[in-house]
Amino acid sequence: MLKTISIAVLAGLITTGSAFAGMLNVHNPKMRFDSVAPSLTELDAYFIRNGKPVTVDLVRQVEIGVSQNKVASLLGEPIKVTRRGNKATWDYNLKFVTADDGELVCQYKVLFGNAQQVDETVWRRPQCRELMVSRN
């Protein structure tokens, strides 16, 4: 019986894992994004999260299978690179101009697989993800 349960659990994990493989524009704030939590007396230029100015159309060109070179040409150099074996994660702070002449700075991760091509992209904030998936 234990063997049957183990096989069933393993099959479920494989199915779930393959369902999530190769996703774009996922919202996942718990995916080890750097946090900045200053106290009110510490609010100065250091804590202002600046981002690289980009457009929605530019970021939408980051798709599954795009090479690291293409991502770098679209978004520039990442602010942080994490490597685990042949896989890499690039972190960006991207700035979008909003309709009311404001700015929205978004934390964005691009995850590359063994072939150094985009496997997944993740947004920290749901507002940022919504920019990418909206029809506008």
TrEMBL record:
Alphabetical list of Pfam families matching this protein: BamE
Listed InterPro entries: BamE-like, BamE_dom
Keyword Transferase: no
GO cellular component labels: outer membrane
Chain ranges of the Outer membrane protein assembly factor BamE domain: 53-119
Signal peptide per UniProt: 1-21
Keywords on record: Membrane, Signal
Keyword Signal recorded: yes
Protein name, UniProt field: Outer membrane protein assembly factor BamE
